[in-house]
Amino acid sequence: xxxxxxxxxxxxxxxxxxxxxxxxxxxxxxxxxxxxxxxxxxxxxxxxxxxxxxxxxxxxxxxxxxxxxxxxxxxxxxxxxxxxxxxxxxxxxxxxxxxxxxxxxxxxxxxxxxxxxxxxxxxxxxxxxxxxxxxxxxxxxxxxxxxxxxxxxxxxxxxxxxxxxxxxxxxxxxxxxxxxxxxxxxxxxxxxxxxxxxxxxxxxxxxxxxxxxxxxxxxxxxxxxxxxxxxxxxxxxxxxxxxxxxxxxxxxxxxxxxxxxxxxxxxxxxxxxxxxxxxxxxxxxxxxxxxxxxxxxxxxxxxxxxxxxxxxxxxxxxxxxxxxxxxxxxxxxxxxxxxxxxxxxxxxxxxxxxxxx
Length: 357
Ligand code: ATP
Ligand code: MG
Fold this sequence. Notes:
This protein is an alpha+beta fold and 357 residues long. It has three domains: 8-93, Rossmann fold; 122-181, Dna Ligase, domain 1 (2-Layer Sandwich); 188-355, 2-Layer Sandwich (D-amino Acid Aminotransferase, Chain A, domain 1), CATH 3.30.470.20. It has helices at residues 16-27, 59-67, 82-87, 97-103, 106-115, 129-139, 166-173, 228-244, 279-282, 287-296, 322-327, and strands spanning 8-12, 31-36, 50-53, 71-74, 93-94, 123-126, 143-147, 157-160, 178-182, 188-196, 202-204, 208-213, 216-222, 249-257, 263-269, 308-315, 331-335, 346-355. Strands 10, 11, 12, 13, 14, 15, 16, 17 and 18 form a nine-stranded antiparallel beta sheet that branches. Strands 3-2-1-4-5 form a five-stranded parallel beta sheet, sandwiched between helices. It is globular and about 60 Å long. Bound molecules: adenosine-5'-triphosphate and magnesium ion. Magnesium ion (MG) binds at residues 254, 266-267.
């Protein structure tokens, strides 16, 4: 881009991630155009320069959208993967179809990780009751049955203890594309984030440490207070995954850390991640700014952390805390503009610096 042109980033998806990408883009003088089936009155469209409300399989609308922007990114992992190739006929698309396809499927992403020598929990693809029976027998202990696609915030998951009958469990679960994972008694969870340019250059963020409640991220503290070798190993694995996927944009990877200090890949997302919202205040270049920069070809910004940070998610049931948070010293409050505060719905987050150094 040049300084005198209006460069426009297209964003697929209408949620809070799209909203925060649009806000960061605006700060850099970039325009945004949101495309989603539910764009009207959405968190992202409310702050974007333009929006289009159309389905993800409306080829004419997708073509018109891509022709109207300079580059496209997806804040939403479950856009049909082939849409990215369609958009790429008009402009660069982040992530590409192949990377999105892998990140959409729990077996595919764990297979790629283990092919790269990155350990994962033991897992069994489950597409029949017989698969489940085999997996349960080999597992012989606590496990988690998950849908391979469309799960988020712990949805589409069922904890098993190995004593349940495979047939009825399979029928009750109701998915013919599932994965059985061993239950990991982890010490804690961490996540990594890299930005990767079209040329293949990589920039890391500091590692985040995460606490989930009921399968939903509750709190992130960052930079994670962990051994430098562990942070390094997680970052190296994340960069290897981004290279393997020839990723353009952001890649977030979630890991379990075992009590003996081992690292296990859980899942990845080719987009901004909830566990890096602290970077808005914590780094000169937040995850959203970095994505806008990479998309517009502006080069990487500085991702060193200013001190240590804590980010707490505000779910629907936490909204009564808002008046207090509005007046609390040192709290950076973010509200996503969602009208209905449903239980477990991500409504906003609050970030505070917990240490200056
Ligand atoms: P997200 O909100 O990150 O999209 P998700 O619904 O895709 O979540 P996971 O990340 O697979 O699902 O699981 C959510 C949380 O459940 C994990 O962060 C972890 O706390 C717990 N969990 C998932 N899989 C396992 C496992 N195999 N062993 C132990 N805990 C697990
Ligand atoms: Mg997860």
